[in-house]
C-alpha cells in the first residue's frame, strides 16, 4: 500500500517549520520560555542552538542573526546558573549538580554555533560581514576557553576536539589579519583581542591545573587577564630564547619547546617579560601596595597567593631547573582504604569513623614519600588537590596521613590521583586557644629524619593564624605552643611548624 503520509511529509518538509530554524522562530521561542524556571529556560535555548547547529541548510544570514541573538539572551541565565553551581545563589528549583550538565552544554554548543558561522562564511565568502566574523571568532574562542577552564576546575582531562577548535579559531584570526584587533565582545564588556584571550588559556594550561586547587585556578585565571598581553606569539623558532610552543593547526595543548617543533603552523613564545612583571608585582604587594591598584583581585596579597605567584614564576621561567622526584617510585598493585577530609581522618585516627567514610582505591605505584592511585566514579567527584586523606594499608603503621597533589579525571569515570605521604606516624592532639575555651582536634606529625622532615601540625584552617598560641594536649602531656607561619594552606586545612613555649 502506498504511503501517502510519508510522501506528504517529504513534500512539505516535516521539520522545516518545527523548532528553531531562524531568527523569527528563535524570537517566538524566547517569548514562550518560563521566566521563573531559569534552568529549564536555558535547556530550551540549548535545544534551539543544537537545532540550528545541526542544520547545514540554514541560510548564512539567518545563522549570523540567530546565534548572537540566542547568545545575548542566554548570558544572564548562564551567569545565574554559574552562581547556583558555585553556591553563591540558592534556587529552589535547581541544585549545583542539576545545573552542571546545562552549563557545560551551553559553552560547547554556543562555541560550536559561532564556529559553524565562521565555517559557513569561509565557504561562501560573503561580503559585508567582516566585523561579524571578527566578533564571532572572538566569542567562539572565549566559549571554548570557558569550556576548557571548567574542565580544569573539575580536573577533567581535556579532549582533543576542544583544543582543535581553540587552535583553529586562532589560526583563522591570524590568516584573516585580525588576531590582535581590539574588539569589545559584548556591550559593557572589557575590550580585548583574540590573541590575548588565546594566550590566557595557553598559560593556564602551562600552570599545570591538575596540581592546583580550584580556588587557585580561578585566581590564576583572573591574574592572566592582566598579564597575558605581556606575551607575544612568534612564527620563527628561536630555541635559545623561546620556552613554549603550540601547533595552531593541531589538536594538542602547548608544550615546552623542542627543536623538532618546526613548521609554518607552529607558534612560539618566551616568558622573561611576564616573569619579571610577576616578580615586580610580588615586591609591590609585599611593600603594601593595594592589589586593586594593580588590576588584581583584593586577596592577591595574601601570603599563600604570593607563594602561588612565585610557583608560577618557577613553572614559566627558563632559569628554574626541572623538578626532581623526592624518591624513586616503583609499580605495585594492591588495594587500600582511603578516608577523605581532615575531619573524617581525625575521626578515623580517634577510632570514631564509620565504614561509610572510607573508599577502596587501587595503588599503581609507590615510593617512600607517596603513592599513585586510581578509582572509578560515576558522578562528578568532589576530590580536590590539597585534600587531607587517611591511608590504611601502606607503611608499617595502621594509618598514614597524606595530601592530594595531582588529580586527572578521565571521561570514562576513571580518576588518577597522586598523593604525598606527609606523616606515617600521625598522632591526634587536642588544641585549645589560650584566649578561648573551645578546643578542637588536629594531627601532629613527629620529626622524620629519614626524609629530612621537621615536626608539624595539621589543623582546620578556620583555627589557624600566624603566631597564635594554643594549649596542646596529647598522650597525657600538655604544652603551650605558638604556631609558625603556615607551611601550606589547603582548602580546609593548614600545615604549620610550631614552637614549644613551656610544658604545662
Summed up, what is this model?
This protein has 12 helices and 15 strands. It has helices at residues 4-12, 23-32, 38-53, 60-85, 96-124, 130-153, 160-176, 194-205, 214-227, 272-286, 303-316, 342-349, and strands at residues 244-247, 255-256, 266-269, 330-340, 358-366, 370-376, 388-392, 399-409, 414-423, 427-433, 440-445, 456-460, 469-474, 477-489, 493-503. β7 and β8 (399-409) form a beta hairpin.
Number of strands: 15
Distance between the termini: 99 Å
Biggest sheet architecture: 6 strands, antiparallel, barrel
Query: What form results from the Cα inertia axes?
Result: globular
Order of helices and strands: HHHHHHHHHEEEHHEHEEEEEEEEEEE
Name the structural class. alpha+beta
* Radius of gyration using CA atoms only: 27 Å
Helical amount? 25-40%
Number of helices: 12
Strand portion, in percent?
A: 15-25%
Arithmetic mean of pLDDT: 89
Spatially, the strands of the biggest sheet line up as 4-5-6-9-8-7
Low-confidence spans: 1-15
Describe the structure.
The chain is of the alpha+beta class and 504 residues long. The protein has helices spanning 4-12, 23-32, 38-53, 60-85, 96-124, 130-153, 160-176, 194-205, 214-227, 272-286, 303-316, 342-349; strands at residues 244-247, 255-256, 266-269, 330-340, 358-366, 370-376, 388-392, 399-409, 414-423, 427-433, 440-445, 456-460, 469-474, 477-489, 493-503. Helix 2 (23-32) packs parallel to helix 4 (60-85). The protein contains twelve helices and 15 strands.
List the helices and strands and how they pair.
Elements lengths: L3 H9 L10 H10 L5 H16 L6 H26 L10 H29 L5 H24 L6 H17 L17 H12 L8 H14 L16 E4 L7 E2 L9 E4 L2 H15 L16 H14 L13 E11 L1 H8 L8 E9 L3 E7 L11 E5 L6 E11 L4 E10 L3 E7 L6 E6 L10 E5 L8 E6 L2 E13 L3 E11 L1
Antiparallel strand pairs: 1-2, 1-3, 4-5, 4-7, 5-6, 6-9, 7-8, 8-9, 10-11, 10-13, 11-12, 12-15, 13-14, 14-15
Helix pairs in contact: 2-4, 3-4, 3-5, 4-5, 5-6, 6-7, 6-8, 8-9, 10-11
Protein name: Zorya protein ZorC EH domain-containing protein
Organism: Deefgea chitinilytica
Amino acid at each position: 500500500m502506498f504511503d501517502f503520509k510519508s510522501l506528504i511529509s517529504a513534500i512539505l518538509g516535516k521539520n522545516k517549520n518545527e523548532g528553531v530554524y531562524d531568527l523569527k522562530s528563535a524570537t517566538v521561542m524566547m517569548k514562550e520560555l518560563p521566566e521563573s524556571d531559569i534552568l529549564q529556560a536555558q535547556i530550551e535555548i540549548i535545544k534551539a542552538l543544537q537545532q540550528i547547529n545541526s542544520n547545514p541548510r540554514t541560510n548564512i544570514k539567518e545563522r549570523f542573526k540567530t546565534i548572537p541573538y540566542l547568545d545575548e539572551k542566554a548570558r544572564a541565565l548562564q551567569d545565574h546558573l554559574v552562581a547556583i553551581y558555585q553556591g553563591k545563589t540558592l534556587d529552589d528549583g535547581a541544585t549545583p549538580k542539576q545545573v552542571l550538565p546545562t552549563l557545560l552544554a551551553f559553552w560547547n554548543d554556543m562555541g560550536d554555533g559561532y564556529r559553524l558561522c565562521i565555517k559557513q562564511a569561509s565557504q561562501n565568502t560573503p561580503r559585508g560581514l567582516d566585523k561579524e566574523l571578527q566578533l564571532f571568532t572572538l566569542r567562539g574562542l572565549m566559549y571554548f576557553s570557558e569550556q576548557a577552564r571548567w574542565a580544569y576546575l573539575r580536573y577533567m582531562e581535556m579532549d582533543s576536539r576542544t583544543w582543535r577548535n581553540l587552535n583553529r579559531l586562532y589560526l583563522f584570526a591570524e590568516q584573516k589579519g585580525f588576531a590582535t584587533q581590539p574588539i569589545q565582545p559584548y556591550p559593557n564588556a572589557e575590550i580585548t583581542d583574540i590573541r590575548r584571550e588565546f594566550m590566557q588559556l595557553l598559560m593556564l594550561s602551562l600552570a599545570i591545573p591538575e596540581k592546583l586547587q580550584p580556588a587557585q585556578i580561578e585566581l590564576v585565571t583572573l591574574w592572566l587577564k592582566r598579564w597575558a598581553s605581556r606575551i607575544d606569539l612568534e612564527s620563527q623558532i628561536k630555541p635559545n630564547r623561546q620556552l613554549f610552543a603550540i601547533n595552531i593547526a593541531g589538536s594538542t595543548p602547548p608544550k615546552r619547546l623542542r627543536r623538532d617543533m618546526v613548521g609554518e603552523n607552529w607558534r612560539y613564545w618566551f616568558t622573561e617579560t611576564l616573569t619579571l612583571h610577576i616578580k615586580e608585582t610580588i615586591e609591590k604587594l609585599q611593600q603594601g601596595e593595594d592589589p586593586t591598584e594593580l588590576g588584581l583581585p583584593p586577596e592577591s596579597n595574601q601570603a599563600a597567593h604570593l607563594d602561588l605567584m612565585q610557583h608560577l614564576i618557577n613553572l614559566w621561567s627558563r632559569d628554574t631547573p626541572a623538578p626532581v622526584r623526592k624518591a624513586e617510585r616503583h609499580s605495585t598493585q594492591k588495594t587500600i582504604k582511603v578516608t577523605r577530609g581532615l575531619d573524617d581522618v581525625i575521626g578515623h585516627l580517634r577510632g570514631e569513623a564509620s565504614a561509610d567514610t572510607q573508599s577502596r582505591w587501587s595503588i599503581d605505584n609507590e615510593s617512600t614519600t607517596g603513592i599513585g592511585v586510581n578509582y572509578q566514579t560515576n558522578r562528578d567527584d568532589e576530590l580536590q588537590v590539597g585534600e587531607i586523606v587517611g591511608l590504611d594499608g601502606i607503611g608499617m603503621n595502621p594509618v598514614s596521613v597524606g595530601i592530594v597533589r595531582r588529580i586527572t579525571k578521565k571521561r570514562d569515570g576513571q580518576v588518577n590521583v597522586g598523593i604525598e605521604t606527609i606523616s606515617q606516624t600521625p598522632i591526634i592532639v587536642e588544641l585549645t586557644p589560650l584566649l578561648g575555651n573551645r578546643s578542637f582536634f588536629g594531627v601532629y606529625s613527629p620529626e622524620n629524619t629519614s626524609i629530612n622532615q621537621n615536626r608539624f601540625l595539621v589543623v582546620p584552617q578556620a583555627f589557624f593564624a600566624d603566631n597564635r598560641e594554643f594549649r596542646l594536649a596529647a598522650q597525657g602531656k600538655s604544652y603551650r605552643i605558638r604556631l609558625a607561619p603556615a607551611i601550606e594552606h589547603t582548602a580546609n586545612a593548614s600545615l604549620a611548624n610550631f614552637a614549644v613555649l613551656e610544658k604545662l
